[in-house]
Design brief:
Blueprint lengths: L4 H8 L1 H19 L10 E2 L5 H4 L1 E2 L3 H8 L3 H33 L2 H12 L6 H12 L5 H8 L14 H26 L3 H9 L4 H25 L7 H8 L6 H4 L2 H12 L2 H29 L7
Antiparallel strand pairs: 1-2
């Protein structure tokens, strides 16, 4: 019997579709089905009525969120931190990948990659403990060294101005190996004949990097930045919570949407307002990725995500 159209495609690509099924089911169950919970943001949630039985309250949860005075602060912090992470992390990762490709031999490159990748697997709980033992005012290693050389200790955990720099450095340290491996893979996939042609033309190592390596990294950089922009309004809860905890002194410069939502649930038990903050976060993220993807598409549609 001859198959036509959609049925024919299902039969023809049955093996590939079967391999794709677990991923599709995963996203359906854990990304799309839970979206029904968005309605909590528009309800006065009570445990007796549950998600669908609670009374509707319109936009009251959003109104409370914005009138609380926290919306602008946590949105600003979330966006600025992620912009800093995107810029600093990508620059360091590209630089390290190029350095390993140009300088390191095969074994040196493998060993260095493994060492750089190690922090990526360290839990944020452990990183937070390490940071506390380094930066604590009384027993921290940094202040112990400062006292040892006759300098005044620094009360880092009570000084919000230090933390944008500390968190950016910690993020760069933890993500350096992961990004370096991706960029190094992109560099090694560049046609070697391009490098040979550049050498024949008399290009030195810096000229080869600027004229061959960097231009060929543009597609990878654009894709990774676009994916990162999609999460620009989503703070890394593990990092911010384990590095800062419930230290209210630092909230002015470190509080992000994710930690705000968590504290709202823990302290006030206001599920509706927490859900409203989450919906607000998702809308901002969706808007950001659409705008950036549109901008990239206007410049070069082949490099856009869609």
């Amino acid at each position: 019997m001859k198959r036509h159209g959609f049925i024919n495609d299902l039969f023809k690509y049955r093996t590939i579709l079967l391999m794709l099924t677990p991923a599709v089911l995963f996203f359906l169950l854990f990304a799309y089905v839970p979206m029904a919970g968005i309605i909590i943001a528009f309800k006065h949630y009570d445990y007796a009525g549950g998600i669908f039985g609670s009374a509707w309250n319109g936009l009251d949860n959003f109104r409370f969120f914005f009138e609380s005075g926290d919306a602008w602060r946590i949105t600003r912090n979330t966006a600025l931190y992620n912009i800093a992470f995107i810029i600093v992390n990508n620059v360091l990762q590209i630089f390290t990948a190029i350095l390993l490709f140009e300088v390191g031999g095969k074994w040196f490159r493998k060993i260095t990659q493994s060492i750089l990748f190690l922090p990526y697997f360290i839990s944020w709980v452990v990183v937070g403990a390490i940071a506390y033992n380094l930066l604590n005012f009384d027993i921290g290693t940094v202040n112990s060294l400062l006292r040892g050389i006759g300098m005044e200790p620094i009360d880092i955990y009570n000084t919000p101005a230090y933390w944008p720099y500390i968190l950016t450095i910690v993020s760069a340290w933890k993500m350096l190996g992961y990004g370096t491996v991706m960029y190094l893979a992109a560099i090694t996939s560049i046609d070697t004949e391009m490098y040979e042609a550049a050498e024949i033309d008399g290009a030195n190592v810096f000229q080869r990097i600027l004229k061959v390596t960097v231009p060929n990294l543009y597609p990878t950089v654009i894709i990774l930045v676009l994916l990162a922009v999609g999460n620009i309004f989503r703070g890394d809860f593990g990092m911010f919570y384990n590095m800062i905890g419930n230290n209210g002194v630092l909230f002015s410069s470190t509080d992000v949407i994710d930690t705000f939502v968590f504290r709202s649930l823990i302290t006030s038990n206001d599920i509706g307002m927490s859900a409203a903050a989450g919906v607000f976060q998702s809308v901002l993220g969706f808007t950001a990725i659409m705008l950036v993807n549109y901008s990239v598409r206007r410049y070069d549609k082949d490099r856009a995500l869609f």
